Amino acid sequence: MTSLPIISIAGLNSENPAIRSATAAELGKACREVGFFYAIDHGIAEQVMAGAFSNAKSFFELPLETKQSLSIKLSPHDRGYVAMADEKLNPDAGADMKEAFNIGTDFPADHPDVLAGKPFRGVNFWPTVEGWRADMLGYYQACLNLGRLIHRGFAIDLGLAENFFDAHLNEPIATLRMLRYPASDEHGAREDAGAGTHTDYGNLTLLATDKVAGLQVATRQGQWIDAPHIPGAFVCNIGDCLMRWCNDTYVSTPHRVKAPEQERYSLAFFLSVDPDSMVDPRDVVPTEQPKYPPISCGDYLAYRLNATYDHRVETDAT
């Protein structure tokens, strides 16, 4: 394999079950074989994506002191600013040379789950940039809707009821992460200096990229292939939580970001399910011996995130 499959998502909106099934089969083939695919014809306008990139750039251009006042270290719920070299996706390789900013579901401070201190149910941090909050929440919602649609394709392909995942995606753990990678002359030339080799933790990632190269995906044969920018397309991949849920029917694939030759921006939307949803392979592939014990989505993600940052994400057990 030298390139990732390109899949038109429009078929999942068809009223014809045969067309929906055909699109779902394409998704399933990609998820079984490489775990990555490009999604096109997804319904999110290019100008909306371009606006989100513009907003991300305006955030990262803020003074460091301003960004640090919104630090993820001040949030037990995985929200806020991640400073350069604060994250180690591959601890053995060293710190990642990137900065990031995370937003999640926009819960108000008086929401019952926020008041109860439930994991991943905190308030967002917002920069004081005019129109920024509304624009980014609009993009967040568009990605959430697309993620829910793609999960319907997964359900069809896995032989489940088409709406199987709907009940788990009411108020899911979903993070929109803006990322900035400095040009490679700002740091060393390590192959994965931008983002260390890793797999994603949740169910599904929707990644929008700019035109600067960087993302690479590992094939089953152990080769690294580039995932270049395709205008208007999302680079999508499944994560470890969905792989666990479907008992390794789908495969979560290692990937990395090389040190870019020039400044690089990307927008990653990480979609999991509701924090209390039980991830149990017996519900998805009941005919197989489960390889993993049941675990709530919230507990699983907290376990994974706490290995990545130098602060803790709260769980029900803390």
UniProtKB/TrEMBL annotation:
- Residue spans making up a coiled coil are none
Keyword Oxidoreductase set for record: yes
Q: What is its pathway? A: Alkene biosynthesis; ethylene biosynthesis via 2-oxoglutarate
Major enzyme class: oxidoreductase
Q: Which cofactor does it need?
A: Fe(2+)
UniProt keyword annotations, A-Z: Ethylene biosynthesis, Iron, Metal-binding, Oxidoreductase
The name this protein carries in UniProt is 2-oxoglutarate-dependent ethylene/succinate-forming enzyme
GO annotation (BP), single = ethylene biosynthetic process
Q: What is the source species?
A: Halopseudomonas xinjiangensis
Record note on quaternary structure: Monomer.
Swiss-Prot/TrEMBL catalytic activity = L-arginine + 2-oxoglutarate + O2 = guanidine + L-glutamate 5-semialdehyde + succinate + CO2; 2-oxoglutarate + O2 + 2 H(+) = ethene + 3 CO2 + H2O
| Residue ranges of domain Fe2OG dioxygenase in the record | 172-273
Give the family per the record: Belongs to the iron/ascorbate-dependent oxidoreductase family.
Q: Name one GO molecular function term.
A: 2-oxoglutarate oxygenase/decarboxylase (ethylene-forming) activity
